[in-house]
Amino acid sequence: MESDNGKGLILAVASSVFIGSSFIVKKKGLKRAAANGTRAGYGGYTYLLEPLWWAGMVTMIVGEAANFVAYIYAPAVLVTPLGALSIIISAVLAHFLLKEKLKKMGVLGCVSCIVGSVVIVIHAPKEQTPDSVQEIWNLATQPAFLVYVAITMSIVLALILHFEPLCGQTNILVYIGICSLMGALTVMSIKAIGIAIKLTMEGVNQIGYPQTWIFLMVAATCVVIQLIYLNKVHYLIFGSSGTVRWYESRKSSNEEHLITLYSPEY
C-alpha cells in the first residue's frame, strides 16, 4: 500500500508539472487565436485551428493521463490536493516567461497551496480497493450520493442556462463554479475507471460491466464541459492582450476615484 501511495504521489506531482506548463502554452495559443477571430469568452472556437493551443492541449493530456494513473495507485484524497501544485507551476512560469508579476498575495496563495497539499499528503488515509466496479456502483447509487449529484447538476444547469448569459462576462465565479462542480463528478468517475483498469490488469475483468462504460461516459462528458469553460476563464482573466481589465483614475476636489472597467476590445 505504501509503495502504491508513493507511485501515486510521483505521478500526481508530474501531472501538476505538465498541466501547469500547459496553461502557459495554451494562453499563448488563445491570445494568438483571438487576434484572428472571435475569442472563446464570446463563444468563438478559432483556437481549435491554432497549433500552439493544441501543443498546450497535448501537454495537458499527458498531465491528465499521469493524473489518471495516479488515481489507480493512490487515494483520491492524496491525488486531488496535489493538483493545486499546477497553479503554482503556472504562476511561477507566468512570472518568468510571460512577465506577469507575481505579487505578495499571489506568493501567499502559492505558499498556502503548498502547505495545504503537504498536510493532506502526510495524513492521507489508507484505502481499501473495491473488489469490482459493481461495488463502486452500489456506493455511487446510495440515496445520499444521488441527492448530492442532483443538487450539483441543478446548480451547474442554473449557472449555464441563467447566470452565464446574465453575468458570465463580468463575473468569473460563474465559469469557476461550473468547472469546480463538474470536477467533483470527474474525480469520482476517474477513480472508478482507474480501479476498473487496475482490477482488469490483475486478472479480474471489469470491461464487461456496463457500469464501467457509464463511468467512462460520465468522465468524458465532465472533462469536455470543464475544458470549454476553462478556456472561457482564461479569456475572462487575461483577455486577448494579456489582461482583462484596465483602470481609469480620476481626481475630484475631494477624492480620487479608481474605476475598474471591462474593456470592450477584449
TrEMBL record:
It comes from the Eukaryota. InterPro entries: EmrE-like, Mg_trans_NIPA. The chain crosses the membrane at residues 6-25, 52-73, 79-98, 105-124, 144-161, 173-197, 209-230. The keyword Cell membrane applies. It is a multi-pass membrane protein. The keyword Phosphoprotein does not apply. Pfam families: Mg_trans_NIPA. It is found in: Cell membrane; Early endosome. Keywords: Cell membrane, Endosome, Ion transport, Magnesium, Membrane, Transmembrane, Transmembrane helix, Transport. Belongs to the NIPA (TC 2.A.7) family. Homodimer. Acts as a Mg(2+) transporter. Can also transport other divalent cations such as Fe(2+), Sr(2+), Ba(2+), Mn(2+) and Co(2+) but to a much less extent than Mg(2+). This is Probable magnesium transporter.
